[in-house]
Amino acid sequence: MSDETRQQVTIDGLREALRTVVDPEINMNVIELGLIRNVELGDSTCHIVMIMTTPFCPYAPALLEQTRRTAQEYVGVPTTIEMGMEMWDPTMMEEGAADDWGLF
């Protein structure tokens, strides 16, 4: 990747790219749900900490890998993903996203 292209890669841009990763049970993306808890974007690596809406999520392996792959395609450097142990709750959702879900 050229230096010019690399300079255009941002965490905000990565978050936009990750909006394509949708939880198939809830039909909302990982950004709306607030599942991306931390992003470390370096010159030659990217590391993401992600949680699930439930510890028993049957789609966890697929969601983690799809998130890692999507991030890696956007940032253009090797990307690792870690499943965080933080418990998810609906307050982590983007403002207004819970309205669509009928929670609040």
What report would you give on this structure?
There is one protein chain. By secondary structure, the chain is an alpha+beta fold. It has a single domain (3-85), classed as Fe-S cluster assembly (FSCA) (GMP Synthetase, Chain A, domain 3, 2-Layer Sandwich), CATH 3.30.300. Helices cover 32% and strands 19% of the residues. The chain contains four helices and five strands; from the N terminus they run ααββββαβα. The chain has helices spanning 3-7, 11-17, 60-75, 97-101, and strands at residues 22-23, 28-29, 36-41, 46-50, 79-83. The strands form two sheets. Strands 3-4-5 form a three-stranded mixed β-sheet, with helices on one face. A two-stranded antiparallel sheet has the order 1-2. β1 (22-23) and β2 (28-29) form a beta hairpin. The longest helix is centred in the middle third of the chain and has 16 residues, at 60-75. The chain is globular and about 35 Å long. Mean pLDDT is 89; it is low at 1-6.
